Amino acid sequence: MFKISYSVVVLAIIILCKETYLKMFYGERTNDYPKSSCLDIGKFQSTGRCLAVCGTTLEMLIMISHNMETHTCMCCDDITGSDIIGSNWKTYIPPQCGDHYVTYDLFSFQTCLKFTGVNVTYPSAVANCQAERSSVIKIDSQEKFDIFKHYVVPIANNTVTQVWVQGEKVGQQWQFHDGSPMPDFCPISMSNSSSEIRLRAYGTTSFTCVDNTDNSKYYYVCEHYRVLAISN
Q: Is the dihedral of CA 7, 13, 16, 21 positive or negative?
């Protein structure tokens, strides 16, 4: 479908359990129809209210559609279904990945990756990614690890490449920034040093995640999902 070329920002004021939350959603208006795989959450007079409720209903939001005539509100975390054709739909999807980011399909949504070939410390990599509303890449599935390799191997060009990946050693367990356990899709190789609490992916055409101190300097990959909002 034809995509309208302007972007919109909606600031939603969400009131839950007598507490007020401000949440910002970035999206593009599109002529796409909602999908049969979307969730119908009821009828709302305004598109803003539809978006606000969708943002608290689904963990990951990749499309919303609001019918200006029937007031039907559709929230989508999966757009693989068939079109729900009709008139007066107002639909928003996430903006395209930013400059120098590449887009990969991941499950029912997309992820945006950016490789930076400058050696920096782990804290600097985290800060640089956060400045772009991204995070250091989180290898939390085999599919994500495969995407990482597909992206980085051509850049490595048959030379040893070392790239910071998200991870922190707490006690004897590796975990992500949000505290969730880190699976070993990227095989982990550890030293006996208690100060080596971060991980970098090391390799040429295959990669192992090797520990090191956070003041060591390596390349890094920033990542964000192409979604309207992710619930914390």
A: positive
